[in-house]
Amino acid sequence: MSSRPSQLAISTSSVQRLLKEESTYRAELTSQESRLRNLEQETSDDDGNREWSVRQEKQAIAETKAVFAPLREKVLAAASNLEELLVS
């Protein structure tokens, strides 16, 4: 009797992991956009870093958004692989 997970279990876990990863990135994007809105609404610049912070937050948002297309391709590929296993 083998204790190794089946190919079906591995494929299912892969899809679940990728969907959880996508959800985490979406939550991070929401948080980053909220921080950016707060930075842009600030009227005081006591430490002189507001402009730099805004640029950094915009860059972080762009980097997070860049993750979604490749991640979506991975999700679709993993889901397709799972479907093939279910059909066979």
Give a description of the structure.
83% of the residues lie in helices and 0% in strands. With 88 residues, it is mainly α. Helix 1 (7-41) packs antiparallel against helix 2 (50-87). The mean pLDDT is 93.
Task: Describe what is shown at a glance.
With 88 residues, the protein is mainly alpha-helical. The protein has helices at residues 7-41, 50-87.
Distance between the termini: 23 Å
Poorly predicted runs: none
- Rg: 20 Å
| Average pLDDT score | 93
What is the N-to-C order of secondary-structure elements (H for helix, E for strand)? Answer: HH
Helix content: over 70%
- Beta-strand percentage range: under 5%
Oligomeric form: single chain
Instruction: Characterize the biggest β-sheet.
Output: none
How many β-strands, per DSSP?
0
- The structural class is mainly alpha
Anisotropy-based shape? rod-shaped
Q: Number of helix segments?
A: 2
Topology of this protein?
Blueprint: H1 7-41, H2 50-87
Helix pairs in contact: 1-2
What features would you highlight for this structure?
rod-shaped, single chain, about 85% helix, about 90 residues, mainly alpha, about 0% strand
